Amino acid sequence: MRIYKVGGAVRDRLLGKSVTDIDWVVVGATTEEMLAKGFRPVGADFPVFLHPKSGEEYALARTERKSGRGYGGFTFHASPEVTLEEDLIRRDLTINAMAEDDQQNLTDPYHGQRDLEARLLRHVSPAFAEDPLRVLRVARFAARYAALGFTVAPETLELMRQLSESGELEALTPERSWKEISRALMEDQPQVFIEVLRACGALKVLMPEVDALFGVPQPPTHHPEIDTGAHILSVLQQAAQHKQPLTVRWACLLHDLGKGLTPEEEWPRHIAHEFKGLKLIKAVNERFKAPRDCQELAMLVGEYHTHGHRALELKPSTLLELLQSFDVYRRPQRFEEFIAACEMDARGREGLEQRSYPQADYLRGAATAARTVAVQPLLEKGFKGPELGEAIKRERLKALKTYKEQV
């Protein structure tokens, strides 16, 4: 029995990055031997065990072959005869196909260290093209390591293009897709994830609504970058730079989908794109079974982001309707995330990345003003039921009028 540290832990150590998760592979062992040493089995598909003390995962060296469509369409074979090199060749990228023993002696049969130095994301073998999930994974790694100068090797991008055209991407489950998408959006340069998916044709398959935004012009007065797709990438980049949560980043990605529906003869204007885009945002939300908080914020930002930009011009009655739509009285955090998404949208424009966004403080102040309306005095006046609701609304409107006059 020989035990090796493999994959990301080896890669990140060689890059000088901190190592958090460690994967181990065990060569020359049987399931019975692992159990005898106190390892606990997990996973139904192939032999993976938890270390009796550390709880870390140890997998028996295995081979795999394609047996069906999609991410799960593989047959695995684990036995003491499977070599370390055979286990490593089934991995996605050369930089993830290295191993080291307890003395940090490196096993690198597929030149991962060379590709680390060359800053290349390169597939290990032609079997890469058998797993459609790898298209998303490579795009995610590109987003993670873009700041270090990593790019996707041309031959790997070509395999990704072939996968995108094969129909295999449609066999991915929403859960697996969302796991990769959500992780990629939380990387330091999530816009690179979208760029790589677009470069290999996967964006057109997975999110045609987002892909349709590239090449669609916007008024240069408000959007010096002109191209809507380029704007979305910039907004995502701003969201990452400002450390926004996943909900905000997802809303930033989808907020302008309605512009993809504008007839060319109406370009570069996009009248009512906020409302038109809602059905598209809903479709993308459902396709990937995004978490409810991500779905809700994306829909609200899609519908109201231009309200956010025009906040200082809104009538008190419109401002009140906006606050009601977000249920700011019971869910203040969601309104904060809306404000953040609007600010990222305003900053995600060429040359305007450092612009101030006074609308943010104005909207926060409006929410505070509306929240300060006390219900108890209205109850004491005898209001109840629908009449109480109307009375609260009147008082909140009065508070917002006062607030607007004082600002």
Overall description:
By secondary structure, this protein is of the alpha+beta class. Among the domains are: 1-110, Beta Polymerase, domain 2 (2-Layer Sandwich); 372-407. 51% of the residues lie in helices and 9% in strands. The protein has 20 helices and 11 strands. A 7-stranded mixed β-sheet has the order 3-4-5-2-1-8-9. Helix 5 (133-145) runs parallel beside helix 7 (174-185) and helix 18 (359-371) packs across helix 20. The chain starts with a strand and ends with a helix. The model has no long low-confidence stretch (mean pLDDT 94).
Question: How do you describe this structure in short?
Answer:
With 407 residues, this protein is an alpha+beta fold.
Query: What spatial order of strands do you see in the largest sheet?
Result: 3-4-5-2-1-8-9
Percentage of β-strand residues: 5-15%
CATH architecture of the domain at 1-110: 2-Layer Sandwich
CATH third-tier fold name of the domain at 1-110: Beta Polymerase, domain 2
Number of strands: 11
Key traits:
407 residues; alpha+beta; Beta Polymerase, domain 2; seven-stranded mixed sheet; two-stranded antiparallel sheet; 20 helices
Task: Give the topology, please.
Elements: E1 2-6, H1 8-15, E2 23-27, H2 31-36, E3 40-42, E4 48-50, E5 57-60, E6 62-66, E7 74-78, H3 84-89, E8 99-100, E9 106-107, H4 112-118, E10 120-121, H5 133-145, E11 151-152, H6 154-166, H7 174-185, H8 190-199, H9 202-206, H10 208-211, H11 228-241, H12 246-254, H13 273-276, H14 278-287, H15 292-309, H16 316-326, H17 332-347, H18 359-371, H19 376-380, H20 385-406
Parallel strand pairs: 2-5, 10-11
Antiparallel strand pairs: 1-2, 1-8, 3-4, 4-5, 6-7, 8-9
